[in-house]
Specification:
This protein has about 120 residues and is an all-beta fold. Helix content is about 0%, strand content about 55%.
């Protein structure tokens, strides 16, 4: 099992910035993908960004150029720097972790709410 704990959500004004963090613990393997997904009310969960253990990144089209994902493999942590936030970025943000070896499992955090509003 892998446990994921997110932090850093909150209320921010349009145009502002926020930084989310995720800490992973448990059965961590060296080849993995960590990522962020979000789900707004009444909508499906969507990709925000992912990063492999080799630091190959992928971003959802709606956040490209505004959000940056980073990770520290030694500490099993990941961050999402969100800039130029828009009201449509309002959602619950979930940390995800996928083991590419070992148990091959997919794990989710409980989520952290980001609200972009004036």
């Amino acid at each position: 099992q892998v446990q994921l704990v997110e932090s850093g959500g909150g209320l921010v004004q349009p145009g502002g910035s926020l930084r989310l963090s995720c800490a992973a613990s448990g059965r961590i393997f060296s080849l993995n993908i960590m990522g962020w997904y979000r789900q707004a009310p009444g909508k499906q969960r969507e990709l925000v960004a992912t990063s492999t253990s080799g630091s190959v990144t992928n971003y959802g089209d709606s956040v490209k150029g505004r959000f940056t994902i980073s990770r520290d493999n030694a500490k099993n942590t990941m961050a999402l720097q969100m800039n130029s936030l828009k009201p449509e970025d309002t959602a619950v943000y979930y940390c995800s972790y996928v083991n590419l070896i070992g148990d091959g499992g997919t794990y989710w955090g409980k989520g952290t709410l980001v609200t972009v509003s004036s």
